[in-house]
Amino acid sequence: MNVVVIGAGYVGLVTACCLAEAGNQVVCVDHDIDKIKTLEAGQVPFHEPGLDKLLGDQLQANRLFFENNVARAVRNADIIFLAIGTPSQSNGSANLDNLLHCAKELANTAFGDCIVVIKSTVPVGTADRIEEILNVGEAGYGAHPRVFVASNPEFLAEGRAVKDFHAPCRIVVGTNEDYPATVLDELYAPFDPDRSRLLFMDRRTAEFAKYACNAMLAARISMINELSDIAGRLNADIQAVCRVLKSDPRIGDSYLYPGVGYGGSCLPKDLCALIACAGTVQEPAYMLRSIERVNRRQGQLLLETIRHHFGGQLEGRRIAVWGLSFKPDTDDVRASPSLTLIQNLLEEGALVSAYDPVATIAAQRALGAASIIFGRSGMEVCKGADVLVVMTEWDEFKTTDFGKLAELLQSHAIFDARNMFDASALQAYGLQHYRLGQIASPANQQIALVG
Ligand code: NAD
Questions:
Q1: What is the pLDDT of residue 450?
Q2: Ligand 1 atom 4: the closest Cα is on which residue?
Q3: Residue of the CA atom closest to atom 3 of ligand 1
Q4: Is the CB of residue 327 below 6 angstroms from any atom belonging to ligand 1?
Q5: Does the beta carbon of 158 lie inside 6 Å of ligand 1?
Q6: Using CA atoms, how far apart are residues 278 and 247, in angstroms rounded to an integer?
Q7: DSSP character for 173?
Q8: In sequence order, which residues have a C-beta less than 8 Å from that of residue 13 and are 6 or more positions away?
């Protein structure tokens, strides 16, 4: 099939590469000309395991092309995917400006019968709006009455996006007509060999399902974080509690890792967008609002614990931070708890040195002129530091040389905001270990001493 993917970001580029690999002719469009040049040169402009090779292979096979001109790209399209960002507006609702702008551009463009598929995460009713723009034609825009609009929200997770696309847990297709259902069934067949993963429903339900999924994941994270905080204060061990929780099939074993809160480009903004959507139908969304509050508090608790360690004063303290991305295996720093912490530390006069295996450039861009020392290794940023805060659970941190850390850290304390380390290993080197939801002892403190 002739596939066009508009938006060459984390979702669009993975979609374009994987659909090309499946044998389709794919044109991927982005209005960022520099990004297009980079991609044409075979380079992925962000970190996503496995994507570089896939991109190179598909370029070489002449199945994947890049464009910055929508009109040129869509002329012979059978399917046009919209994978454009939908960030938060100041009131929390999803900003659809780029997406609707793109729909209007399409409405003004000549192309044949085809299906427009919305992959972006969008509020319920967006497909209806886009269909109206395309099929009815707004004033000044052409009409495309033979264009079908379907919803196909994406569920891939950064860091394993290629794997997720190859073997999805489910492929949600929202359409009110048979034709798009048949075409998408055929397109996705290589990724659904036993024909069990395609879930068909109406468009509004598909749009809602994506938000529901992210709300459920965010709820689990905030729930385990709140339980962890309570456990720590009661001198109970959340790790042992997690083993109990995971053994219950009604609860399951995913997303039960206490940490510093969720971040990234999806959960925070999608939760806010869902709360905003709920508001439009007079639903108070008490639960969703609590999830969000717990998440914000989690970062604050860590900051307060660090402050408390220094007797309430962070001015002039040297703090090393490991991990800048919101999770391992990605360089995405959007809404990263690590960047929020760094900004708070700097505001209180602390001196920050930071290291991340892949996200340094993205963090430098996001933090702008902030004066932070970025290092090329974890140990380098600990030289002369008072304490270390571990914010992202990268694999390479699992094999830390605590002996060396004990020599470098002036104040002999590690804030283990991902509960990565074994308390006894740190204790053996005289390192004070702050972690989440643990029984407190002089050498082993729980994060959230102050709350
Ligand atoms: P992104 O910001 O990485 O990429 C979006 C791309 O669209 C950018 O390259 C931008 O230049 C381009 N763009 C914007 N407007 C355009 C236009 N009018 N014409 C052409 N290109 C345009 O975003 P993303 O992370 O890939 O997310 C895309 C959508 O998918 C969002 O709605 C997001 O919520 C959803 N989603 C993201 C993930 C994820 O893990 N990143 C997972 C599932 C769903």
A1: 42
A2: 9
A3: 9
A4: no
A5: yes
A6: 34
A7: E
A8: 5, 28, 39, 44, 48, 51, 55
User: What letter would DSSP give residue 395?
Assistant: G
Residue bearing tokens 């509960």? 419
Question: Is 169 considered catalytic here?
Answer: no
User: Which residue, by CA, sits nearest to atom 7 of ligand 1?
Assistant: 7
Question: Cα(121) to centroid of ligand 1, in Å?
Answer: 9
Closest CA to 339 of 363, 316, 357, 362: 363
User: Is 120 touching ligand 1 by the criterion CB < 6 Å?
Assistant: yes
Instruction: Dihedral sign for Cα 100, 105, 110, 115, please.
Output: negative
**Can you tell me the distance from the alpha carbon of 263 to that of 326, in angstroms, rounded to the nearest whole number?**
6
The finding on whether 39 has its CB within 6 A of some atom of ligand 1 is no
- Dihedral sign for Cα atoms in the order 442, 391, 90, 120: negative
What pLDDT is stored for residue 451 in this prediction? 33
Residues paired with residue 46 on neighbouring β-strands, in sequence order: none
> What radius of gyration, in Å, describes the C-alpha atoms of the chain?
24
Measured distance CA(62)–CA(170) in Å, rounded: 29
Q: Which H or E run includes 275?
A: helix 267-280
SS3 74: helix
Amino acid at 205: T
pLDDT in tens, 371-408: 899 999 999 999 999 999 999 999 999 999 999 999 99
- Strand runs (DSSP E) across 175-213, as ranges? 198-201
Full strand arrangement of the beta sheet holding 351-355: 372-374, 351-355, 318-322, 387-390, 413-416, 432-435, 444-446
Q: Which of 266, 272, 277, 382 is catalytic?
A: 266
Residue 45 Cβ contacting ligand 1 at under 6 Å? no
Ligand 1 atom with the smallest distance to the CA of 266 is 34
What does pTM read for this prediction? 0.94
Q: Are 301 and 447 in contact (CB under 8 A)?
A: yes
The pLDDT score that the predictor gives to residue 446 is: 73
- Residues in the chain predicted with pLDDT less than 70, given as ranges, are 137-145, 439-444, 448-451
Supply the DSSP string of 8-47, one letter for each residue.
-SHHHHHHHHHHHHTT-EEEEE-S-HHHHHHHHTT--SS-
Length, in residues, of the chain: 451
The H or E element that residue 211 is part of is helix 203-233
What contacts 118, CB < 8 A, 6 or more positions away? 82, 99, 126, 127, 130, 149, 150, 151, 152, 153, 207
